[in-house]
Amino acid sequence: MPELPEVEALKDFLTEHLVGRRVVRVLPVAISVLKTYDPPVTAIETSEVTAVRRYGKFLDLATGDGLHLVTHLARAGWLQWRDRLPDGPPRPGKGPLALRVALETGEGFDLTEAGTQKRLAVYVVRDPEEVPGVARLGPDPLAADFDADRLAALLKDERRQLKGALRDQSLIAGVGNAYSDEILHAARMSPFKLAASLTPQETGRLHEALRATLTEAVERSRGLAAGRLKAEKKSGLRVHGRTGEPCPVCGDTIREVSFADSSLQYCPTCQTGGKPLADRRLSRLLK
What we know:
Layout: H1 4-18, E1 23-28, E2 49-55, E3 58-63, E4 68-72, E5 77-82, E6 97-103, E7 108-113, E8 121-125, H2 132-135, H3 148-155, H4 162-167, H5 177-187, H6 200-221, H7 229-236, E9 255-258, E10 263-266, H8 268-271, H9 280-286
Antiparallel strand pairs: 1-6, 2-3, 3-4, 4-8, 5-7, 6-7, 9-10
C-alpha cells in the first residue's frame, strides 16, 4: 500500500509534470473507482491543473475551475505516468486499468489496481474536505507543529496497542502497515505496547522515530520517477516484509505476527526483550 512517503513523492512528481498543463480527457475504465458523480469526473476536462497536494495518503489535483480530482490508491492501487498515452480510448475489461487522465501534450497517467479487492477511489469535489476520508484525517506527522507534546496529547487516552494507533488515519495521517513496523523498530518498542502507557521519555523516542523514519523515506523517494517508487520503498524497509531475515541492528531473526488480512514484522531483541509475540493464527495452524 502506498503510504505517506510514496504519496509525497508522487505529489512532487506530479507537481513537476502536471501543474500548468491542461486536462483534455478523463476516461474511467472501471466505474467502481468513481465515488462521486456530481460534478461528473469529466467536469475537469479542459481545466488547467494549478496545484497538487497531499492529505495523508490522498492525492489532490486542484484545477483552475475550482474542482479537485482526489485519489486514494488503497492497498493495491498505483499511478503510472506515460510520456505518450496510447492512441484510442482504453477498453474496459479484466485488466488493472481503472482510470486514465490525458493532457493536451499527449502525456498523462493511468490509475491501476491489482487484485480482486477493488478499493481504489476517485472523487471529483469542490473542496477536498467533501471527501469523508480527508475530512476525518488526524494531523500530518511531518507538519512543523507536530512535536512530542502533540503526539503525547494524541496518545494519552488511547487504550489500543501502538501498532493499531499508528495506523489509525483519524489519529495520525499517512502511516500504514509498513511504516508503522519501521517506526516501532526504530523506536525499540513492541507493537503490542499500549499507547496510553508511554512515559514522556518513550513518547519522545517514538516521536523521534516517527519523524526520522518518514523523513528519510521521503528523501529516498524524492526525485524518483513514479514507476520506481515501489521498488525504492521495499529496498528501504528494515523489518517490514523481511520475516526470517537478520535484523540489521542486532542480527536477531525478524519474526511475524499474522492477522486475517495483514501481518506485522518485528525484532524480538530490539523490541520485545527477546520474547516472541503470540501469533494466534500460526498457533491455530499448528494444533
